[in-house]
Input
Amino acid sequence: MGLAVSLSHLPLNALRAFEVAARHLSFTRAGLELHVSQAAVSQQVKSLEDILGVPLFRRLPRGLALTAEGEALLPVLTDAFRRISATMDRFEGGRLREVLTLGAVGTFVTGWLIGRLPQFRAAHPFVDLRVMTNNNRVDLAGEGLDLAIRFGDGAWHGTEAMRLFTAPLAPLCAPALARRLRQPADLLREALLRSYRQDEWPRWFAALDLVAPAVRGFVFDSSLTMAEAAVQGAGVALLPARMFERDIALGRLVRPFEPEVTLGAYWLTRLKSRKESQAMAAFREWLAGQPEVAASAGP
Output
């Protein structure tokens, strides 16, 4: 019968030796990983078996095989050591790094956030930021997100929203296509690429006092994918031009006409029921201090 082992007397070295040996099914390879001899690993495992009162391995002529007891113990130890290692890795500079999981619309991440992440990292090294991109449809609770950056009017049920800045939509297309456009009405003859928000093109044409055509172009659930379609000549896309400044500067996309339409803004959101952590507050304050955000907020 096995002996009860109190938490204060856990044989950690023996447990680790067993876990590594069980993964390799070899005392020799376990010794190499742990930088000890094969005999030391074998002795540690034997001491654990003595404490538990059950064999954990069957010693075979050519290696090891786990007993039923060993098979039951291995996944528990593997998970425990993995979690310990992950937590230890979060200590940096005398402080525990705090995980912050951010969901953000992909256009914002590639067009604005990525280039500023080194600045955030330098200012807040204790934050372990995890960025999850989406197409603006997000479930903060269901996806386990601390914060989300999304595009819209800021009115999402159960959330607090901090306005970042607007991103007016303008036509963008490949240079070859742009060369045959002389005036906005010329767009009536072109394929107009669409997002799942059906009012974008009609509202852009309405801002120019033009009657929008029946838009039957391809529909995309991602502005990034739609922009790439425009680059490859599939049509004209209505996109937030400030998020594609690199593509415009590189000549991959051209803005044939200056008129634009504002249909919303980017917002930083969190659930009202979610208490703000230090990492969440650090990211919010950092965003609020960015020149574009501060200027958008006004005096």
